[in-house]
Amino acid sequence: MNNKEIARVFEDMADLLELKGENPFKLRAYQKAARSIEYLPVEAEQLVSEGKLREVPGVGEAIAKKITELVTTGKLGAYEKLKAEFPEGVIALLEVPGIGPKTAMLLSTELGIKTMDELEAAIIQGKVAALPRMGEKAADNILRHLQALRRKDQRIPIGEALLVVDKLLAQLKDVPGLRNLTPAGSLRRFKETIGDIDIMGTADDAREAIQAFVSLPQVREVLASGTTKASVVVAGGLQVDLRIVEHDSFGSTLQYFTGSKQHNINLRERAHRMGLKLSEYGITDLRTEKLEKFATEEAFYRRMGLQFIPPEIREGQDEIARAEQGTIPGLVETSDIKGDLHVHSRWSDGRDSIEAVALAAKARGYQYVALTDHSAGRGIARGLPPERLRQQGAEVRALNEKLNGIRILSGAEVDIRADGSLDFPDDILAGLDIVVAAVHSGMDEPQERMTRRMIKAMENPHVDVLAHPTCRLLPDREPVAVDMEAIFQAAVRTGTILEVSGMPSRLDLKDIHIYRARELGAKLATSTDTHSVEHLEFMRFGVGMARRGWCRPQDIVNTRPLKEFLAYLKS
DNA sequence: GCCGTTTTCGGCCCGACTGTTTTCAGTCG
User: Fold this and answer.
1) Which CATH number among 3.40.50.300, 3.40.190.10, 3.20.20.140, 2.30.30.240 corresponds to the domain A334-570?
2) Å: A346 CA to B13 C1'
3) What's the pLDDT tens digit per position in A472-482?
4) Residues 356-375 (A) near nucleic chain B, CB < 7 A
5) How many helical (H) and strand (E) elements, i.e. helices and strands, does chain A have?
6) Separation between the CA of A316 and the C1’ of B3 (whole angstroms)
7) Nearest protein residue to B28's C1' (by CA)?
8) Is the pLDDT of residue A197 over 70?
9) Nearest-CA residue relative to C1' of B24
10) What CATH fold (topology level) applies to the domain A156-245?
11) Would you identify the CATH topology of the domain A250-325?
């Protein structure tokens, strides 16, 4: 049983305990453990065999036992027993926003509702509004949420969400007295997918700002609108929350609204031990009741006795303890990047000429860009047969003569075939500056074969980079079955660089993989898989992922200047 | 159920918004 499945069990258990009216702190313990397990950089199974389960924050004696049971038997007695205590389908009702434990139990016991369809029918028949403490409006609300839930796609990749946000921010820019408009929440933490969009700002008149927000043309529905915050649904079904505070609370509010939830809970517990109380408005001294406001997050963390914690690593793991010790590393930034190691031109399935891509790379301040068009095996992607690759090499040489300040590395994105062999013979690979290898087909293979296949490719001395290692596509294609721990170890052994693809639909490797690979000493590269010059911008997502994996500049090989990077490739 | 530089027992984050209510419960983030 994998970490995601284990986390799911504990989340369900927390829901069931809540339905049961159990001690709220107990169910919070389950939720915390679920979160912890979800973010583990290694499989819980490995921790069980190493006896290290108890080192995971939020995992104590009882939960460790439950995890062990799940890992070894694939089932959990306590969970099965708990499930049996409740009518079928109650947990499903909790999925609907606006339905909490009380309402779910009411709907289930009074009306016998098991599914969303039955719920919809009951609302339309007026049965829900007639329940105690319900009413027309409450029932209507549930119906709207239910229908929105049906329409709504899953979480969307961060790349798409940022487009929506950029537009919103541009539209709100001119509202008088509205300042400091900033994306917060999971967007600011660079989570790979976004469930809803959080924006915050400060204003002379919060009401006026909220009014401007809910009146935007793309707002399809206003879910809530008060004096300091509002929630709307915009075209496309995405929920956007806006929170407005006074100018001098900006730092505290940004911190509060960036989350994550678990990070904030941990911070508040720490504050409590310090005799302080945290809220979005600032820090209150519990003894004097005095509120201290913060204009910046830096000042806020300083007051808490902590090193500044970058948003990308505020996931409620051990970042607060690390900040207390002052051991949060300086994370890589987009401005550290000296080159892109994965770009396509119109020679294969890219849109632009090699020269256009090179000039765009130069304009970004890069010193080099690796041209990695597809190999012949990628027929659909107009992959290059050896002869065309040689012709391309000639053009690259000519361009390198002509252009100043940017070096084009001749390379290829070579297919890893089903047997682990490569789509170009070794003598051709040997003539390239850089070889990026990737799986593009036969993705349904069982884990052992896929793992062997990738490792075999990594063992080829000409292969420099393993691209998008898990082959997932957000939000639909699941990662291939592959033993990531083995891939990371092979990367360390063979010196193969692991790609962190910034392409929004890939983001591959993902955060916890990056964390583990780095921990084991593997080298990583943030790349874009550019197919037209605008895609070079995807580097921000690659860097965002790397930061979520706690990467410093020295962990990312393409932060090295050209000469140093070429020397590294040779070694 | 977890956890401890006050504690191994007694705590456990905090505020906003809505709807059905006459003072608050439920839900959310």
Assistant:
1) 3.20.20.140
2) 54
3) 998 778 899 99
4) none
5) 24, 17
6) 16
7) A98
8) yes
9) A133
10) Beta Polymerase; domain 2 (3.30.460)
11) Beta Polymerase; domain 3 (3.30.210)
Which residue type is seen at A261? K
**Per-residue CB contacts under 7 A with strand B, chain A residues 389-448:** none
**SS3 assignment, position A292:** strand
Question: In whole angstroms, what is the distance from residue A443 CA to residue A60 CA?
Answer: 38
SS3 category, A220: strand
Give the model confidence (pLDDT) of A347-386 as tens digits.
999 999 999 999 999 999 999 999 999 998 766 678 899 9
Three-class DSSP category at A69: helix
- Cβ atoms of A546 and A526 closer than 8 Å: yes
CA distances from A249 to A56, A172, A312 (A): 34, 20, 22
Residue nearest to nucleotide B11 (CA to C1'): A25
C1' nearest to CA of A102: which nucleotide? B26
CB of A316 within 7 Å of some strand B atom: no
Domain edges within chain A? 3-151, 156-245, 250-325, 334-570
pLDDT one-digit tens code per residue, A250-283: 999 999 999 999 899 899 989 988 889 898 889 9
> Residue A224, CB, less than 7 Å from strand B?
yes
How far is A56 from A72, CA to CA, in rounded Å?
18
Q: For A507-536, what is each residue's pLDDT tens digit?
A: 999 999 999 999 999 999 999 999 999 999
Q: What is the pTM of this model?
A: 0.90
Distance A61 CA to B7 C1' (A): 19
| Topology of the domain comprising A3-151 | DNA polymerase; domain 1 (1.10.150)
**Spacing of A289 CA from B5 C1' in Å:** 25
